[in-house]
Amino acid sequence: MKNLKLNNGNLFAISERISTPKYNRSIIKTGIVHIGIGGFHRAHEAFYTDQLLQDETVKDWGICGVALLEFDTKIYNTLKEQDGLYTLIVKELDGTLTKRVIGSIVEMLYAPENPMRVIEKMARPDVKIISLTITEGGYNYNEATGEFNFENTAIQHDLENPQAPKTIFGYLTQALKMRKEKGLKGITIQSCDNIQGNGHMIEKMLLSYVKVAEPTLVSWIKENVSFPNAMVDRITPATSPSDISSLKETSCIDDAWPVVCEPFKQWVIEDNFIAGRPAWETVGAQFVDDVVPFEKMKLSLLNAGHSVLGILGALLGYDTIDEAINNQNISTFLNNYMDVEVTPTLGDLEGINLENYKKSLLERFGNINIKDQIDRICSETSAKFPIFILPTINTQLENKRAIKLAAFVTAAWAIYNLGLDENGKFLNIKDAMIDVLHKKAMKATNKPQLFLEIETVFGGLKASEVFVKAYTNAYQNIIKNGVEKGITDLNNTILNKI
User: Fold this and answer.
1) SS3 sequence, 438-495?
2) Hey, is 371 helix, strand or coil?
3) What is the mean pLDDT of residues 330-352?
4) What CA–CA distance (Å, rounded) separates 138 from 172?
5) CB 454 within 8 A of CB 436
6) Is the dihedral of CA 442, 436, 375, 300 positive or negative?
7) Per-residue pLDDT at 498 exceeds 70
8) Of 1, 6, 66, 111, which residue is the least packed, with the fewest Cβ within 10 Å?
């Protein structure tokens, strides 16, 4: 069978091999501008939208994918060459692969090349939603102060060069200003990132920026823009060369950047769309009045669980998340962390069977077919820790409850930032704060609590004598006995209390 390059011209022929869009992409109008066209967006929002577009009556909710950063050049060029098409490969629990071509991204823009074109696109009257997957660090949030970080050089650039912005805040401000000047009705800005209160977060950070950049725009935004909170969930590991070659070998489809993901998916959204929305509920999304219980559960259990596995697994020399969770000691540790330290912070979760949810997480983490890279999970932990783990610690401290497991993970992360695993192998650390982290980690070898002085990550945690003591003990235990011995000791301590 002949290899077929994935593009519009070959779509009909490809449809004889795997599932492809049944709708006519050429007549789909763009109703959504999405910033950040990485794997998660393409496995999640773009997937849901593709399912919706299979209904031939739906024609107004195509996606314009925007590559915001120069870093995104490769993905932009790849998708542009493929007419926005890509293959979604679902790695089922039984090892089988479900493949389908996704066609919901009907336009592509590269922001660094022509910023004004992106701004003008966002200001089009037919665009009703601007959605975001810009990662936790993209919100420019200072954990120590709770405020917008104006010291960021890219933010300073945007304030000085409003017509040629580099950050999402510069783009949104100019686009909303243009919509106001055109007399257009409102628009929804929808975060799809793993941040608790992600809608509130983007609203707060954007208004902080606008008050300085375009103060007269503030009242218009408050009246004409909605920011729904949402909880998103689908494990989406980085695409590997073997994923690309396997697709070519098994289906003879030449796709330069397919997306792989797990079968599980969840999207819970507050129904607060000022300019209308797609009927995503018809394809599996859930619209609710209050997303807080759902997102808190997910961030504190799934996302924090991922970070726990990543940090501990990295130090033990594992490469993938499934390797880490299939170490019984680590699996027991994570289960204990979820039961003993996280669950008490979650409160009443109406309609949710928490025990079943936690059990499902262990199964999902253990999917040997996903091979989620630990260095991906550990990337930008400085932005993840304040969101995924710190709230649990703070709540537990406030209520004088257990924090030893979280303290152990924190100590392990401090040691991780020294840059070597326990076998002496260099760790592939990807973090915007790597210089600060490494510097503090080095100082912590003599005085462990010095690592807690990074206020943008830990806030005021260093002031807690209870936590500092537990953290210091954990740090010294790991240095003396190794990670796994420390894990088993804690597991046994908890077992003895049951």
Assistant:
1) HHHHHHHCCCHHHHHHCHHHHCCHHHCHHHHHHHHHHHHHHHHHCHHHHHHHHHHHHH
2) coil
3) 91
4) 13
5) yes
6) positive
7) no
8) 1
Pair 397, 346: CB distance under 8 Å:
no
Tokens (6 digits) for 104: 């919901």
Q: Which residue in 55, 31, 15, 4 sits closest to 106, CA to CA? A: 31
Report the share of the chain in percent with pLDDT over 90: 92
Confidence of residue 146 (pLDDT cuts 50, 70, 90): confident
Give the C-alpha separation, 81 to 88, whole Å: 17
Token duo for residue 494: 């908890």
CA distance 142 to 149: 6
Write down the number of H helices and E strands in the chain. Answer: 23, 16
What local confidence, expressed as pLDDT, does residue 121 receive?
98
Q: At what angle do helices 304-315 and 328-336 cross, to 10 degrees?
A: 150
The first and second tokens of residue 73, run together, are: 């050049």
Q: Are 231 and 293 in contact (CB under 8 A)?
A: no
DSSP structure string for 303-325: IHHHHHHHHHHHHTT--BHHHHH
Helix (H) or strand (E) holding 354: helix 354-365
Structural domains of the chain in order of their starting residue, each with its CATH number: 4-288 (3.40.50.720), 292-497 (1.10.1040.10)
Furthest C-alpha separation in the chain: 68
Structural contact between residues 265 and 232, judged by C-beta atoms closer than 8 angstroms: no
The token duo for 341 is 């330290």
